[in-house]
Amino acid sequence: MKPKYLLLLLIFCLAISITGCKEQYSRYTYEFIGAFDTTIQIVGYAKNQKEFETMGDYAQQRFMELHKLYDIYNDYEGINNIKTINDNAGIKPVKVEKAIIDLILKSKEWYSETNGKCNIALGPMLNIWHEYRDAGKNDPENAALPPMSELENAMQYTDINKVIIDEENSTIFLEEKNMRLDVGAIAKGFATELIVAELVEKGYDNFAISSGGNVKAVGRPLVQGRNYWGIGIQDPDGDVNDPDEPSLDIIYVSNKSVVTSGDYQRTYIVDGKEYHHLIDPATLMPAKYFRSVVVVVEDSGFADFMSTTLFLTPFEEGKELAEKLGIDAVWVFSDGTLKATPGAQQRMKNLGGATGN
Asked: For 39-75, what is each residue's pLDDT tens digit?
């Protein structure tokens, strides 16, 4: 699966423990790679390292399981995943696990509630872009854009209403042979939300998970005087891999997800011009409205879906949609300007004067 890479930086507290409680909790970090082709980091508080590592081990196992289920590129022995569904398009329904049924149900529901910019059935068109991007990276001198005629032909097979869900029999069927699902705009966030819910049910709280551009913050940092986690908004012109890179602003949250879509990852260059991976289904070209869009809502899957939706939507239309759905959002424009919904601005350190207290 080709996810959106790390677009946010968690701003972690320097304090190691909290006093004044019945028991002392220490801050720990757990990090791993492999799931969803990105680095996943968990930071939080526990009574001891063993307790925290038990939580981290469980989260890593679940991320890897869901990565395999939502993968559109690879087969895994004994597993029917999204690729299995694509391989059987126009042939037969595929029996899948509940985690896939729920992902596709929500994708269709959110598609119908928004403006149709984020559509998991766009796989035929997005796969063409993926192939040209990979070819361009492997052979930069011959990098090329996909022919518009090829993209337009692929759009004939992107009707989300032909993605048939049979909940009773736990099957998914793509009605036409050339159809293909691409769940990259929702899978990582959806997986994060599922795993966080499972961790909370197990009794874990006061932690944050950063999975690429998806951050889910639970509870609060157990540091005296701190009630919120601080999440940094990545500078699109900065070094996303540098932990010391200054953020454009900081958003303070508790029990919220902060997810970013941006134009500064998964790019390739054709004739000296850079093209990113977020394709507008209206133009069949990379969207040019913003450098990035940040969404703040409780559900990480919905935040993932909406960050893509708003990135592909002109500002006024997107702002109206965000307000209609009660979403907090921040738009980063090409000139460095930040615009935010009132709710998001109230959470921001620089733009709104918020603090983590």
From this structure: 999 999 999 999 999 999 999 999 999 999 999 999 9
* 326, burial (CB in 10 Å: exposed 0-12, middle 13-18, buried 19+): exposed
Contact 348, 332 (CB under 8 A): no
Letter for the amino acid at 167? E
How far is residue 123's CA from residue 129's CA, in Å, rounded to a whole number? 10
| For the chain, counts of helices (H) and of strands (E) | 10, 19
CA distances for 356 relative to 12, 304, 344, angstroms: 11, 24, 14
d(CA 289, CA 311): 7
The model's pLDDT over 230-255, given as tens digits with 9 standing for 90+, comes to 999 999 998 776 767 789 999 999 99
Question: With the C-alpha atoms ordered 354, 331, 127, 106, is the resulting torsion angle positive or negative?
Answer: positive
pTM attached to this predicted model: 0.92
